[in-house]
Design a protein that fits this description.
Elements: E1 14-16, E2 19-21, E3 28-33, E4 38-44, H1 48-63, H2 72-88, H3 90-101, H4 105-125, E5 133-134, E6 140-148, E7 151-155, H5 161-174, E8 178-182, H6 189-200, E9 208-210, H7 215-224, E10 230-234, H8 237-248, E11 253-257, E12 263-266, H9 272-284, E13 296-300, H10 304-317, H11 336-351, E14 355-358, E15 375-378, H12 385-388, E16 395-401, H13 404-412, E17 417-418, E18 420-424, H14 428-437, E19 442-445, E20 460-461, E21 464-465, H15 472-475, E22 478-486
Parallel strand pairs: 7-8, 7-10, 8-9, 10-11, 12-13, 12-18, 13-16, 15-16, 18-19
Antiparallel strand pairs: 1-2, 3-4, 5-6, 6-22, 11-21, 14-15, 17-20
Helix pairs in contact: 1-7, 2-4, 2-6, 3-4, 4-5, 9-10
Bound molecules: nicotinamide-adenine-dinucleotide.
Residues 155-160, 164, 182, 184-185, 215-216, 219-220, 223, 234-236, 239, 242-243, 257-260, 291, 390, 392, 419, 459, 463-464 line the site of nicotinamide-adenine-dinucleotide.
Amino acid sequence: MGAGVATETLPTRLFINGEQLDAAEGRTHDVINPATEEVIASVAAAGEEDVDRAVRSARATFESDKWRKLSARQRGEAVWRLGELILKNKEELARLETLNNGKPVFESMIDVRLAAATYKYYGGWADKIHGETIPVDGPFLNYTLREPLGVVGAIVPWNFPISLAAWKVAPALACGNTVVLKPAELTPFTAIRMAELAIEAGLPPGAFNCIPGPGSVAGSALVKHSDVDKIAFTGSTEVGKQIMRDAAGTVKKISLELGGKSPNIVYADADLDAAARGALTGIFYGKGEVCAAGSRLLVEDSAAEEMRTRILERAKKMVAGDPLDPKTRLGALVSKRQMERVLGYIESGKSEGATLLSGGARTPVNGKGYFVQPTVFEGVDREMTIAREEIFGPVLAMMTFSDGMTGATELANATIYGLAAGIWTRDIKKALRTAREIRAGTVWINTYNMYDAASPFGGFKQSGFGRDLGVHALEGYTQVKSVWVDLS
Ligand code: NAD
C-alpha cells in the first residue's frame, strides 16, 4: 500500500440511499497512486444493477416529502452545511484528492475550497429561485413556477474530481433535484466521501448517491436509464458526443462541458513578465490536465524573442516533486496511460517539425511516478497535431502572429474548441475588443485560470453547451411551468 495509507481509511464502496454497498456483481477495480505507481485501494465498480438501484433510490427520495417538498430555505441550509462540512474536512479531502489524482496537495486544497464555496453559493440560491407573473391578454392570471427536473445523473472526469462534482451536485440539489454521481474510475475517493458527508449535513438518504464504476458500463447505463431526467457531463468531446447519441433514446436533458485547446494571446505591449507567469500557470497548473489549459501560446511576433527567454527561464525552474509535500508545484499525471499519451504527443510535435525548447521527457520522483517535465515547443504550425488536439498534459505550443488583433483572433479561433482564452495587453480597448472576437465561453484578461462559484463556466463550439456555476447553471436544473387561472 502506498504512502503509508491503510485501505480501510479510504472510501471504496458505492454510496446508495445513505448506505455503503459493494457492487451487486461484486466487481472492483484497483486505484493507483500515480506518484508512487502503487495500488492503494480496491474500489467497488458499479454495474447496471447498481445504477438502477441508485436511480431508484434517487427517484424515491425525489417523490417523497423529504427533499423537494422541504421549504426552499431548509434545503438551502442543508446544501450550505455540506459546504461547511467539506471545509471542516478539508485536510482529509485534499489528501485523498492528491493520492488519487497526483496533483500537488497545495492545488487539491484550492479545489476543496472551491467545492465548499460552490455548495455555499447554491445553498444561498435555494430560496431565491422563483417564477414570474406574466401580463397575458384576457381575464387571466398567468404565472410561472420553476420546478426541479427530478433525478440528475452527474458524470465527471478525473482532473478536478471534487470541484467538478460540486459544480453539478450543488445546483442540482439546491433546485430540489436528487442526484446520482458517477466519478471517473481513476478518482473516486472524494466523490464518495462527499456523498457520505451529505448525510451528516442533514440531506435525506437517496438525495445524493455516488456510484464509482467504468464509464462504458456505469456511465453508459446512467445515460440510457429511462428514469434519469438529466445528464450533467464533464469530460472529453468524444464521450460527450456518445452521450448525446445515448441520451436521444429517452429525450433526456443534457449539459456537456467538454475539451479545449485554449489560446493565450500575448500582445507586444503586454507586461511580458506577467504574461510569462500567466502563460506558465495557464499550461502547467494541474500538470496541464486542465480543460481550460492555455495550451496554445500565441505571441505577437515582435515580442516573441523576449517571451521565449522569460518562458524558458521559468519553465526550467519548475521541478516535479512529491505531490503530498505542500511545497510541490508540479505533480504526477493521473495514470500511466495518460503519461504515455502525453509523451506520444511530444513525439508527434518533434516528428512534425516543431522545435522542442524545454522538457519533453518523463521525470520520475524518487525513481517512480507518472511525472512529465514541463515541455515547451516553438515553431508550431497551426496544422500540427500539437496545435489542434487536446493533449491534456504539461505541453505548451508557442506560435506567433502578426497583423495585430486580426491576426491574433484569427489564429485563436482556428480550433474546433471554444472553452477559454487569455489576453495579455496594456491597451484596454484592444483587450475588450479581442475578448468580443474570441469564440469561447470564458476570457481572462491579464490573468488566467480564475474560477468563482458565482461566475459561469462552459463552452462554445465543440467545447459543449450549458453552463456550470453562477446563476446560469440554475436554468439547467429547473424547468418552467406556466399556470393559467381564469379570473372572469
Ligand atoms: P472521459 O470523457 O474519458 O470521461 C469522463 C467521464 O465520463 C468519466 O467518469 C468516464 O467514466 C465517463 N464515461 C466514459 N465513457 C462513457 C460513456 N460511454 N457513457 C457515459 N459516461 C462515460 O474524460 P476524462 O479522460 O476522464 O477527462 C478528460 C477530459 O475531460 C478532457 O477532454 C477535458 O478537456 C475534459 N474536461 C472538461 C472540462 C470542462 O469543464 N469543459 C473540465 C474538466 C475536464
